[in-house]
Amino acid sequence: MDQSSDNSAPIQLPNLGNIRLGTVAPSLQIKSESEPDYLDFDIKGRGMWEKTVASTGWGYLIGTLGGGLYGVKTGLSSVPNSRFKVKVNALLNHGGRGASRAGNAIGCVAMIYSLTEGLLDKGDVEQFSPVQSPALNPALAAFLSGVAYKATAGPRVAALAGCIGAGTVAGTYGMTALTGMKFANTNFMFF
Question: In terms of DSSP H, where are the helices of 11-47?
């Protein structure tokens, strides 16, 4: 059959602009537009893994900078010789040692804290507590982080580290309440 000899007219479709979807939708099992459609519930902000990675990175960076500065200070004060090369060597040795120790320590604590807080949020621990406070999960996470980080040093040291962590969160919460600021754990750790 020859395509060029086909002179049929194009198909005319009816005018579909007058059809109301509200009347046709129930027959097609489509919800009406008045009902909200909740497809995916997502809390605004970062997820647990993003917070963990960000807190670990920030903790390592802050610890490295602070530990490096402290190491430089101790390196300058502990040089027995006044020769320039000896001073530079002591400065670099102490600065590098302090930076690596503090960076690793704060990065590990930040990682443990973020994971613990995320798991407490997922487990909805606040519903089992008689105290309803926005600082409950961060304080419990800080206590558990201190205990986990210092667990190898013995139970007394671990409990002390946990109390220091929980006390830090409680102090931060108290200061934000006194100053009228909002206590939020959306940034680095609980700050």
Answer: 21-24
**Using an 8 Å Cβ cutoff, are 125 and 165 in contact?**
no
Mean pLDDT computed over 21-31: 69
How many residues in total does the chain contain?
A: 191
* Rounded-to-integer distance, Cα 161 and Cα 163, Å: 5
Quick check: 137 and 153 in contact, CB under 8 A? Answer: no
Average pLDDT over residues 59-85: 90
Contact status, residue 165 vs residue 154, Cβ threshold 8 Å: no
Report domain extents, the chain.
47-123, 127-185
Q: What is the DSSP string of 70-95?
A: HHHHHHHHT-S---HHHHHHHHHHHH
Tokens in use for 75? 């390196």
